[in-house]
Backbone:
């Protein structure tokens, strides 16, 4: 369980920064299953390609997988669907990007003794939605798009998080799933960075 991996770091650091996409909403298998059920005649390779396109559509729409973005992602893979089907798939896929209740409970419990920050390029409204399966503790800092100094990747954003939480670099750890966007800025600033793999459901200690 990935929570156990996170807990290995909890006792060693004062501030834990979590990217949301791909780290806390780690539902890769569920997304592939949903696509396989929607398109049973396609091969595993085709489903994988569509999933990548769907992920890009999700990012392009800043976390609101609209039917038009989904239709475009499918069209890139030579698949045409009607508007109703696109909307149904968009809703299903977006719901799978919501954070599981057990993860929210873990973060809330962690925030009782540690500083916890959710660092994401999504808007605050989108964060509210994807965490709505369980109420997020007010102790948790949500550093969403509106609060950021600049777009990711950013050293300045991380410096702002450290300033807000009044935490030194050597007492901070960041969990991310993208080397260029998450891991490298943290590394350049001197923050301990942990790469979370969305495909094997585990962390890679750097």
Residues:
């Amino acid at each position: 369980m990935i929570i156990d991996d996170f807990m290995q770091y909890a006792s060693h650091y004062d501030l834990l920064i979590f990217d949301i996409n791909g780290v806390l909403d780690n539902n890769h298998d569920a997304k592939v299953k949903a696509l396989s059920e929607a398109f049973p005649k396609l091969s595993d390779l085709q489903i994988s390609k569509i999933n990548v396109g769907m992920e890009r559509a999700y990012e392009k729409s800043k976390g609101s997988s609209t039917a038009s973005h989904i239709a475009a992602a499918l069209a890139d893979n030579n698949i045409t669907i009607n508007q109703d089907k696109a909307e149904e798939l968009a809703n299903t896929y977006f719901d799978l990007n919501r954070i599981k209740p057990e993860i929210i409970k873990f973060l809330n419990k962690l925030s009782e003794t540690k500083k916890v920050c959710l660092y994401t390029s999504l808007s605050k409204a989108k964060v509210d939605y994807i965490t709505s399966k369980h109420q997020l503790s007010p102790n948790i800092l949500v550093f969403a798009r509106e609060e950021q100094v600049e777009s990711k990747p950013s050293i300045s954003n991380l410096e702002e998080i450290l300033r807000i939480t009044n935490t030194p670099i050597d007492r901070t750890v960041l969990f991310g799933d993208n080397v260029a966007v998450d891991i490298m800025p943290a590394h350049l600033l001197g923050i301990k960075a942990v790469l979370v793999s969305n495909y094997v459901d585990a962390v890679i200690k750097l």
Q: What stands out?
A: The two ends are 19 Å apart (CA to CA).
